[in-house]
Design brief:
The chain contains four helices and 15 strands. By secondary structure, it is α+β, with helices and mostly antiparallel strands. It folds into two domains: about 170 residues, Beta Barrel (M1 Pyruvate Kinase, Domain 3); about 70 residues, no CATH class. A four-stranded mixed β-sheet has the order 2-1-10-9. Strand 1 and strand 2 form a beta hairpin. The two termini are about 15 Å apart.
């Protein structure tokens, strides 16, 4: 077996939009990765406008220059790009997204901790490359890159078998401590998936029967050592994490060793 290591870091600066791959990422005090889900869209009632509730979000393409705090946006692959400052153009961005999605949106920012789905497990999500390769083989036309885009995981681990990340959650829902480089994390739970993985990441089209097929295959391939208590159902993939207590500001880097 190859050395177990961090092979890929992906962050999603605007919640629900395209991700960007990094060589290193700073860990924030609250446990998230710097600039991950730093920005989000809210509707008039303060609810997220995201891929879970609005399939049209999948058609929006984004390109980021975080050093300059800029983003370029367009709808689909043929439209012209429109550029914005992520620092100064929040009202304009709200207007652009409102027009693109046909519903009023506000563009908001949380520099300190971003907008994770679950603040109790605000750390990065973890999966192995082997897991994504295994899952991509369950569906015709679903390659590794599309699996990455659909499951939107932050940290990818190489040098391990499929579903290795299930080792990071303990029996009776007891957290498991593990390290990436010198940063200690707690594996909290197998991530319950939403409607987003059932859709094409580029167009939002539904893959018919995806959830049922996924759950059946996940149950059939569940490793014997996976904690049964984590699987009240089998539409779960990747692991939610929390920063272990007592950690000081640090960075994660591609190539960091992973130790459980």
């Amino acid at each position: 077996m190859n050395a177990v290591q961090l092979s890929r870091i992906t962050i999603y600066p605007i919640k629900s939009l395209d991700g960007i791959e990094l060589e290193q990422a700073e860990v924030l005090e609250e446990g998230g990765l710097d600039n991950d889900r730093r920005f989000a869209l809210l509707d008039s009632q303060g609810r997220y406008v995201n891929g879970k509730r609005t399939a049209a979000v999948h058609q929006i393409r984004s390109e980021f220059d975080l050093a300059a705090m800029r983003v370029r946006l367009r709808i689909g692959s043929d439209a012209d790009w429109t550029g914005f400052s992520l620092a100064d153009d929040h009202p304009r961005l709200g207007e652009w997204f409102s027009d693109a999605l046909g519903a009023a949106c506000r563009f908001v920012e949380n520099r300190a901790g971003g907008f994770p789905d679950d603040r109790d497990t605000a750390g990065p999500t973890v999966v192995s490359t082997a897991t994504l390769c295994e899952v991509s083989g369950w569906f015709a036309g679903l390659d590794l890159e599309e699996a990455r885009r659909r499951f939107r995981t932050n940290l990818e681990i190489d040098g391990v078998e499929p579903f290795w990340e299930d080792r990071l959650v303990g029996a009776s829902r007891k957290p498991v401590e593990f390290k990436i480089g010198e940063v200690a994390w707690l594996g909290m739970k197998a991530c319950q998936r939403c409607v987003v993985p059932t859709r094409s990441s580029q167009a939002g089209e539904i893959t018919r029967g995806f959830q049922k097929m996924f759950a059946q295959a996940r149950e059939q391939t569940l490793p014997a050592w996976a904690p049964a208590e984590q699987f009240d159902h089998f539409y779960r993939l990747c692991v939610n994490t929390r920063l272990a207590p007592g950690q000081v500001p640090a960075k994660l880097r591609v190539g960091d060793a992973v130790r459980v």
